[in-house]
Amino acid sequence: MRAGHAAASTLRTLPKVELHRHLDGSVRISTIWEIAEQHGIDLGVRSFAELQEKAVLRAPRSSLQSVLDCFSTQQAALCSFEALSRVTMENIEDAWRDGVRLLELRFAPAFISRGKTIDHDAIIGGVVDGMVRGMAAWPVQVGLIGILPRRYPEAAHRQATADLVRWKDSGAPGAERICGFDLADEESGFDPLTLAPFVEHAREAGLGITIHSGENTDAASVRRTLEVYRPARIGHGIRAIQDPALVLRLAREDILLEVNPTSNWITSAVPSLREHPLAELHRAGVPVCVNSDDPNLFGIDLVHEYEVCLAEMGLEPRELLAMNLAALRHSFLPRAITSALAAEIEPAWGAVIATAGGGAQG
What we know:
By secondary structure, the protein is an alpha/beta fold.
């Protein structure tokens, strides 16, 4: 272990918080293959090797949309209550193996149901069932975030919002863990006012608001997101770095950016991982956290993202601890849960920081 840097094996054991992980973009490739065989789903491949080649993106694409177009293979496997329960449980297991102690998983009922007969109740029910079973199997605190894909029809938005809120208040075991609401999909050229009523519906129902913004758009898009939706967090948000006044506002208003380094590189949001603005945003006082976004789609895990932060961005373990504590403070799960985890996370990281010889203040 170099001074100020933790070895990969140490990074894996350190307790972490992950707030931005798409359940419907994080299906194990082996699980896609098995579910496709069970249900007779045509994935357009002839072998598991071909599926791996098709379903995992390991190099930058030309645009965000070209990456979004690759989600169809993952989406195809989410075809039943049982499949969704399994995938949710596996997401929790994968996170646990990365050292995650608090995980917020997000999913889009309208996206999952597209082109299938499965309805929102089976989708949400399957996710909640898998979450309950996953938390029973591994000591991870899990919250669920519902997503509206921006460019879907208004009727789909209305139905998904109503169903998520209804489930949250249903009293079904685990349903109270539906804690957040998000807008995702391509942001450019979209009128944000179109979805404002659905965001307000979710907020009034007690859901925390996080919005995908400023990933491949500009700082003005992040500013509009703040003004129209008033989120507590922003998914990605890295283009805020273009506007120093906006950076100051994010810091002043304590708006957390859920940052996903490799994802930003794959979607060509940044030219390289070394040029990613995460460190600059953090050192400017903006609350940020590190996440994997769609790990199985990108062939990574969360530990890989931490290694990137250390090796490519020059961040120090002390700063990664600060990011985990910021993530805890901005989690949509109850304070009793996050406070207890802070008491576990801070001393564990503190011991590594002391052994490694400190590092820059976070």
